[in-house]
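For this section, I looked closely at the sequence of one protein beside the tokens encoding its backbone, which the following lines show:
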Amino acid sequence: MDDSKVVGGKVKKPGKRGRKPAKIDLKAKLERSRQSARECRARKKLRYQYLEELVSSRERAICALREELEMYKQWCMVMDQGKIPSEIKALLTGEEQGKTQQNSTKLTKAGKTEANSSNPWM
């Protein structure tokens, strides 16, 4: 008598299910696994490098902001004593000079357009 069973209209034989992988398939599978692990480690290394660069750039930005904050604190202490810091004076005079230069260039441009409109040959 045959040991096969009829399940859902199909004949099933006990024992082997599917095919067994050959030695070559096992070696190829192991090599693919090793290659995949190498690629994963490389990606991880790149990700860590990127994050380290990001952290270092943020730390530099924090240090710069701390220095700027300390400078402003010192300016405030000087201003509390009733003095105006030389840096602020330089900023204010620089802005005033910039405004006067802008106004003078506007006036010269306006003078040129008036001169051009009064002289038909220009």
